[in-house]
Design a protein that fits this description.
Blueprint: E1 2-5, H1 12-21, E2 26-30, H2 37-41, E3 45-48, H3 54-61, E4 66-69, H4 77-90, E5 95-99, H5 113-128, E6 132-137, H6 143-147, H7 149-155, E7 157-160, H8 172-183, E8 191-195, H9 203-214, E9 219-222, H10 225-234, H11 239-253, H12 263-268, H13 275-281, H14 283-286, H15 297-321
Parallel strand pairs: 1-2, 1-4, 2-3, 4-5, 5-6, 6-8, 7-9
Helix pairs in contact: 1-8, 3-4, 4-5, 9-13, 10-11, 10-15
């Protein structure tokens, strides 16, 4: 039996679905079973609990041969995932597959706090003696539905502090496919896999791709990090999360997301999903048909910040030209 921790998230739910389709018995640790009815309908067993409750972890681990571990970003991430590792050791689980962070961020002295948290958990798993596999994906394409789609659909504007950095974005479903292969094989112990999409591209090209997918013009504007942080703060994001997102954007601008791996094709036999395919599939989320509606406050803030950023950029170009 395989225990999936994080089964209601972007990756975990797809892992559970693929495992069931492959004929593997699956149990999911869920905080609220009412939010996992779709999983239950597919034949996934549900164990109620969370990473703060060691008793619930022990119960969920009972009879598990392998564990898939992923959880939301949190300043206590290493502590919470560590609880799961300790429970896996007590249950004598035979394999832990952990979704970690993008490789350049995962180190004890890394530039991003969440990356340092991932390193602590990886190190704890290595010290536990349980066979492991670490998956280190880059930027999820699905994140665009939360970070980019609202502004693109209302304003035709793609604003981000990414400059011209190329990023090999990966579809979360491909990460899940890799995880499923790793969880159903004994050929991946003590391995670390970088997981990316098929190619790297800058946000300016992403804007062009969204333009083609929606049939409506999308313009990219590089937003200075300080202004991006202001937008996030006005949206009510906590300070630690703002700091993390700014740190990650800095990593991407330095080239952290440019490397392309062949992991998806090598482990699954299938080509990784392309950004063009993703944009076509989710074109409705980026469509500007709702542009006549009143702008929400976050969109107004984004427009103001992006406009200021564009103004600064134009002013700088004029100054240099003069």
């Amino acid at each position: 039996m395989i225990l999936v921790i994080g089964a209601t998230g972007k990756i975990g739910g797809e892992v559970a679905r693929l495992l069931v389709a492959a004929g593997s018995p699956v149990r999911a640790l869920v905080r609220d079973p009412s939010k996992a009815t779709a999983l239950a309908a597919r034949g996934v067993g549900l164990a109620t609990g969370d990473l703060t409750d060691t008793a619930s972890l022990d119960a969920a681990m009972r009879g598990a041969e392998r564990v898939f571990l992923v959880s939301g970003q949190d300043l206590r991430q290493a502590e919470l995932q560590g609880n799961a590792v300790d429970a896996a050791v007590r249950a004598e689980v035979g394999h832990i597959v952990k979704v970690s962070g993008i490789a350049p961020s995962v180190s004890p002295g890394g530039p991003a706090e969440i990356g340092r948290q991932h390193w602590r958990t990886e190190h704890r798993i290595e010290e536990s003696g349980v066979p492991f596999t670490f998956l280190r994906p880059g930027f999820f394409m699905q994140n665009l539905l939360e970070t980019a789609a609202p502004m693109v659909s209302r304003l035709g504007l793609l604003a981000a502090p990414m400059a011209r950095a190329p990023i090999a974005m990966v579809d979360a479903r491909d990460i899940a496919a890799v995880a499923t292969e790793v969880l159903t094989s004994e050929n991946h112990y003590e391995r670390v896999y970088d997981v990316t999409g098929p190619r790297a591209f800058p946000y300016a090209e992403l804007a062009a791709i969204l333009t083609r997918a929606t049939g409506q013009r999308v313009r990219y504007v590089h937003t200075p990090p300080a202004l991006a942080a202001t937008v996030l703060r006005r949206q009510g994001r906590p300070d630690w999360q703002i700091e993390h997102l700014v740190e990650m954007a800095e990593l991407f601008r330095a080239g952290a997301g440019a490397t392309v791996s062949g992991t998806v094709r090598e482990l699954t036999g299938l080509a990784p999903r392309s950004i063009e395919g993703f944009a076509a599939e989710y074109a409705g989320a980026f469509d500007q048909g709702g542009g006549a509606r009143l702008l929400r406050p976050a969109a107004r803030i984004g427009l103001t910040v992006a406009g200021r950023a564009a103004g600064v950029s134009r002013s700088g170009r004029r100054h240099r030209a003069g």
